[in-house]
Amino acid sequence: MTDTSNYISPLIRLNPADNVAVAREQIDPALMSDVEGLRPLAKIPRGHKIALSAIARGEAVTKYGQTIGFASDDIAAGAHVHSHNLAVGEFTRDYAVGVDAVAPDMIPEAERATFMGYARPDGRIGTRNYIAIISSVNCSATVSKAVAQHFSAPGVMDRYPGVDGVIALTHGGGCAFNTKAEGYSYLARTMAGYAMHPNVGGVLMIGLGCETNQIPMLLKREGLGESERLRTMTIQQVGGTRRTIEAGIRAVEEMMPDVGAICRTRLPVSGLSLALECGGSDGYSGISANPGLGYAADLLVRHGGTVILSETPEIYGAEHLLTRRAASPAVAEKLLERIEWWRRYTARNDAEMDNNPSHGNKQGGLTTILEKSLGAVAKGGMSRLNAVYEYAEKVTEPGLVFMDTPGYDPVAVTGQVAGGANLVAFTTGRGSVSGFKPAPTLKLATNSEMFRHMDEDMDIDCGTVVTGTETIEALGHRIFDLMIATASGQPTCSEELGYGDNEFVPWQVGAIM
Q: Considering only Cβ atoms within 10 Å of each terminal Cβ, which end of the chain, N or C, has fewer?
């Protein structure tokens, strides 16, 4: 008699209502004539979909118990389901506002987890302690980078214990735009959000002097003022490139003692604000890393923390799952308004929402934006959706919230960090590499093969769920524990590799004049 106690099906069926399943490993009809009672009709790459039954042309294709598109041709049972026979189409979604909005089962305060973080004088809580050089305009980017690079030379930071480093936050905009338009609002909010970020102990803003994005105007608009921890200068005022670099270095050196004097203390995990992000997703993203992160996100909410879901184009087709969890009709309406903004925006630019997924997503098994979104939204767990924020707005509501951002990873996370995220969890199936200083970034691999291949870049292997060796719940607890260790100072892979100096990318919207 064959022992089947450790048998793991080669197919992953995510919902009894699904008419497709995901191949756990590659299925080759030359080697396997029968798979769970199906005769495979073609080679099914790992992470890709196989039809569990015949699907007629025009019929809905279902995964996660949800519509991921419609058959663009007749699909036989056992056939490979992908771009050649699956396409997006319009269909009605049941938004059912608030029907699944349940208050989280909060953990009693005396039993909540803690971490070793930085308590700022104004009540903000940080996980790192940086000094940031922020350029107001592209023209001051070179000088800003030169100031930061001075402190990256071997041995320099040894003189300043307690400071994690000096980072240059530079960008390609800041001039030739309308200061009354939303593009300026986004840039101003982003710069202010980083200047007041809990992971930043001191700030030096450097401008050219004649740019549209005037530093005094920005500070006034955002309710900020110069101080010992927030200093400003312009290249034209100081007297050119070399003099400004020298003046910038002196200003940072003067800030070092006060910034380095702050020490880590034991603080409640409710002080954590977690940015949820996915990039280079594959067919396993919605099966392993995203739901595992979602479980950890729910744990953080139960401990009083904040979780920020974003990437509006990548919840399209799954937005009804969020409106059903909306804390109020106003929250649901704001989310749907942002979805509609993106529909109009893509139409004006001769694009479609289904231009996403990317080439790499499709190679990894994702076919439509609907499928990608259903997997992506799993990062938000099952918590009630408490608020919806515009890009780079300061997040003040605890629990699960949503921020309107593009799907492009650097732009999306820049907005989340500007909103106050002091920790980033980034899931990837293809192997994204990046970091988002000043917030430490954890990389969660959706499959074990990629984790082993890129082990120096990945912090946690979530492929254990795919192989059946770990449950979503166990993975979620493992992610949560790693989040606490990281927030307490344990370096991430991206920090060890020096990532985070090039990922500050504010969202540029509007005409450049």
A: N
Token pair in block for residue 357? 């997924």
**pLDDT at position 4, please?**
45
The partner residues of 445 in beta bridges, in order of sequence, read 428, 461
**Sign of the C-alpha dihedral computed for residues 318, 321, 322 and 326 taken in this order:** positive
pLDDT range class, residue 433, cuts 50, 70, 90: very high
Instruction: Identify the CA nearest to 68 among candidates 138, 24, 14, 26.
Output: 14
C-beta of residue 57 within 8 angstroms of C-beta of residue 81: no
- Cα torsion at 453, 368, 406, 376 (round to 10°)? -60
Q: Which of 446, 440, 431, 391 is nearest to 414 (CA)?
A: 391
Token representation of residue 57 = 């042309």
**Is the predicted pLDDT of residue 351 greater than 80, yes or no?**
no
Q: Which residues contact 390 (CB under 8 A, 6 or more apart)?
A: 338, 403, 404
The SS3 call for residue 57 is coil
Helices (H) and strands (E) in the chain, counts: 14, 21
pLDDT at 511: 72
Segment 339-366 shows an average pLDDT of 86
Residues 101 and 104: their CA atoms lie apart, in Å, by 9
- Mean per-residue pLDDT, 94-101: 96
Amino acid in position 407: G
E strands, 2-79, where? Answer: 11-12, 20-23, 49-51, 60-63, 66-71
**pLDDT over 70, % of the chain:** 98
What pLDDT score was predicted for residue 7? 67
What is the DSSP pairing of strand 399-403 with strand 49-51? Answer: unpaired
Give pLDDT, residue 8: 79
Can you tell me the distance from the alpha carbon of 176 to that of 47, in angstroms, rounded to the nearest whole number? Answer: 46
